Amino acid sequence: MIVSACVITKDEEHNLPDCLESIKEFASEIIIVDTGSTDGTIEVAKKYQASVYHFDWIDDFSAARNFAISQAKGNWIIFLDADEYLSQDSMKHIMSILNKAEEQKNEFVLGVIANIDKVRHQTVNVSPHIRIFRNDPSIRYVGAIHERVMKNGGPMKIFDAKDQITIIHTGYSQEIVQSKNKSERNLQLLFKEWDNHPNRSDLAFYISESYMINQNFEEALTYAQKALQFQNATLVGLYEKNYVNLINCMIKLEHPNSKITETIHAAILSHPEYPDFYFFLGDIYRASNRTRDAIEAFHEGIERSTKLSMAQSSAYFNATKVLTIIGQLYLSLNELPQGVESFVRSLQLDKLNYRSLTEMLKVFSLHESWENTLSVISSLYDVRDPRDILLLLNATVEVGNKGLASHFYGLLKDPTIIGQSKVYAQYHMLQGKYVQAAALFQNRFLQSNHIEDRVNMVVAAILSADVTYLDSVSHLMTPSLLALINRAEQGIDPEEFSYFIHALIRLNCWEQLLEYAELIDQYQQLLITAECFYENQSYNFAIEFYQFYLEKESDTLTKSTASTILIKMAKCLYLLGDWEQAISLLKEAQMLNPNEYAVYEWQLSILMRVRDLASAAQVSQAAMQYFPDSPYLKTIITH
């Protein structure tokens, strides 16, 4: 069997070696069609014994590709771009796949292209593509731009090798796309075709894509809608990706959530197995505080993300982030086991997902001994690896787990490697070594001049009760911090005060914080303090400060803002076990803002917990007047 490898080039000397290395072992011949390189592209090609042909560029990618095909002598053709290469596994499988395709009389081999962002070192998405096909006169490329291989006069017989053939595309990053000025060039070529074929869905789709690159979302939306209107595209996966573009445009243009949701539901109706749409829906629900609806939508997407779609999708590569979000949503409902399970699944996919790690550790820090937590961590990380140790030290210090932080600090063979780092200073603060922590934050401030380091230096100095040290660093303090130390009624900067409050709450230094209660009120820091207590899961204090804030600002707050605060107070009461008072506050919040989904969801959580089904039915019926599309409410009513 003879395999011809074809590549179109122009100034690709840096990309071409990887491309040709990936095909040299099985390709009987390499055909390079160059469209005017001025760098070392031709020299690179000749090192690989490629046959080089020159082709005058005529604004038509298909013409260039078909010219390359016309020079090929092989039975099969593999066509790569210069910034693409076959994965290592694909190189091993290619000949056996071609033999199977021969036996089954197939004409095309379907693989996938993985778009890699070289700048951010991550896979952006994957999509099915045909780059391997028989050398047959009836098989040629069509389309001046976004060209695609087609068979003339009959159905395409395709061998599905999506799980075996992966082509890595390295030219995907926004920076590279913009540097090549692709979008402007593409639009010129596309509109030439559009003048002759103004009702083609594929052209409308490609025009929309080019406008997306230019961030011209109005025009991108217009042409995405045209692609749906004509419904005559044959390219696999085009309509799924077109819906993604359409939804993204609507989000960028700040269309009403109701309209975006309608579009997402239409997309799901047309393509129910495409995972990205469920992630869009989950994001919309989450932004609307529809927690259980969001969880369900995200789960639907996760279930489908493991299946390789026939359309370009980023779902698999976003799965670890989505699992983190699912975990956070479960925690917000106090459903801790489900939350932890989601974080563990996320970390199994990517153990460097720092948000999942810290969220999981917060739960364990409140409910498990550090020794028990260590056994879970050891199943996910190599606690002998210095990189894992540093990651775990950072995370355990951030969540304030003194026992685990001490353990991982003890595993460091050379603690001086973190000597100037923020975590080193925070570690000493966590361990109650306030004088050392103050000195470390002082050194950091002198290097960074960052407000947070200066405030932490002051907090550590106050907690150390070392008056001498405080005097020695007074020259480094702003007048605002000096006023704060002296609890002056004037001259305190609100931003520095906010950092000060956060630092004390994070360290659970309630007594010291409450000494500043009058200043917190005077400097309008009540809400910030309440929110910080809430995030720190110090619910009794959070309720007190929320209540102070409501009383003080009752004449100025909007109904929506007051409702939001009442809901948070109700969640605190729920978590403290005072369900009756929580229901009372939720009803008050409902009266203020009946369009807020959370007031119904939290009432239902409590009522279902206490098995008050009659009241639950009443609440769900009231909620359905405002949210008739809610899957969760429908489930409650049904059952």
From TrEMBL:
InterPro entries (UniProt xref): Glyco_trans_2-like, Nucleotide-diphossugar_trans, TPR-like_helical_dom_sf, TPR_rpt
Q: Which Pfam families match?
A: Glycos_transf_2
Annotated Glycosyltransferase 2-like domain ranges read: 4-129
Q: Which domain of life is it from?
A: Bacteria
Q: Looking at the keywords, is Transcription regulation present? A: no
- Where the TPR repeats fall, as residue ranges, is 275-308, 320-353, 563-596
Q: Which UniProt keywords apply?
A: TPR repeat
| Name of this chain's protein | Glycosyltransferase 2-like domain-containing protein
